[in-house]
Design goal:
Blueprint (H helix, E strand, L loop, with lengths): L10 E5 L2 E5 L7 H4 L13 H37 L3 H8 L7 H17 L3 H7 L9 H11 L4 H13 L6 H13 L3 H8 L5 H13 L3 H15 L3 H14 L3 H16 L3 H13 L3 H14 L4 H10 L7 H14 L4 H21 L1
Antiparallel strand pairs: 1-2
């Protein structure tokens, strides 16, 4: 009778922090692991051999699921903190005792460096990601260079294009970085092309965001449908639903507010979630409520660019003094001199001054 649960068919790895399992199939034993009849009985098959094979397949499936579940649970808090904008908590959780499972360490580091980038701490990423670092980490060094040195962006874009041309298999980190950079450049077509084969939750969410920036709510709705099919309850899916509701407006604004509030109740208050709620209020012309919410957001993060921009926007509607409005503008210009809205404002100011001089002459 064939032995269908040979120890060489899979390896079970055990460490002091718990059981991590990985199915490692051995090609030379592959045939032995298939269900084969033993000595013929009255029915023509050895039922016991079939039962043993079924149990082996079940064990193997459980091992794979256990490994996937372990990884998902270990990374959930780190990823979730990043997604809702709690970047410092993401970093704190990532810097705790590192997991022994290699891929977990890598994924932890990826989100840690992404959180540092969100905090504008580019020098940390540039210093710690080395030439011999994992290919999954290197793209974030490129993103740090892009964000820190606007004068060198043309050269960085060329490097990015070369990296994409040499990407023979999906590097999710490179896809995320390329999409982020193309989004900054308003090159939405290239961003969507990069995301074409990335069907992860993050990839689908980024596609939805880009479609919203293109005012293609119809295509964004299709991406949301894909997200719901993958994981309707995921944080990214919920946030994507809320962002789509913001774009739709009307009664959907209140639904978006409730989603952001539910995320706040579950995972805590962040500047990102508060700012999103303020946008709901602005869409409903509830400017006083928006002002209070934005003040709370700025208390969480005084340098949050979205909160600064929205505070400046509603100053017209809340009738703040000209001095306060000017102070808010100065803060935005000092903190983010290269931000798109600041550059556009400065250009318009120059144009206005030129027109004034022309009419004076």
């Amino acid at each position: 009778m064939a032995n269908c649960h040979s120890d060489s068919c899979y390896l079970l790895k055990v460490s002091h922090s718990g059981i991590k399992s990985q199915a490692v199939m051995s090609s030379q034993h592959d045939a032995d692991c298939r269900c084969r009849p033993g000595p013929v009985d009255g029915c023509g098959l050895n039922r016991l051999a079939l039962v043993n094979c079924d149990l082996t397949d079940l064990r193997r499936l459980n091992i794979v699921k256990q490994a996937e579940s372990y990884e998902a649970n270990e990374l959930f808090d780190i990823k979730n903190s990043y997604y809702i904008g709690n970047y410092q908590q993401c970093i704190n959780d990532a810097q705790k005792e590192p997991p022994n499972y290699g891929n977990l360490r890598l994924q932890r580091d990826i989100f840690m460096y992404r959180a540092y980038l969100a905090q504008k701490k580019y020098s940390i990423v540039l210093a710690e990601i080395k030439p011999n670092s994992s290919p999954e980490l290197k793209p974030f060094k490129l993103l740090a260079e892009y964000l820190q040195t606007p004068s060198n962006r043309n050269s960085i874009l060329k490097t990015l294009e070369e990296e994409l041309e040499n990407m023979y298999e999906i590097n999710h980190s490179l896809v995320i970085v390329a999409t982020t950079i193309y989004n900054h450049e308003h090159n939405y077509e290239s961003a969507l092309r990069v995301l074409k084969n990335d069907d992860t939750l993050e990839g689908l969410t980024l596609s939805l965001i880009i479609y919203l920036r293109m005012n293609r709510v119809d295509l964004a709705s299709k991406e949301l449908k894909k997200l719901k099919e993958k994981d309707e309850d995921a944080t990214l899916t919920q946030m994507a639903q809320a962002w789509l509701n913001l774009a739709l407006g009307g009664d959907k604004l209140q639904e978006a507010y409730y989603i952001f509030q539910e995320l706040t109740d579950k995972y805590g208050v962040t500047a990102l979630l508060l700012n999103c709620q303020s946008v709901c209020y602005i869409g409903q012309c509830e400017y006083k409520k928006a002002e209070i919410t934005l003040q709370d957001a700025l208390e969480k993060d005084i340098n949050d660019i979205d909160s600064l921009v929205n505070s400046l926007f509603i100053s017209v509607h809340t009738k703040v003094s000209a001095d306060v409005a000017k102070r808010q503008l100065n803060m935005l210009q000092d903190t983010y001199p290269n931000a798109e809205i600041v550059v556009r404002y400065n250009n318009k100011e120059i144009e206005f001054d030129s027109l004034c001089l022309a009419f004076q002459q």
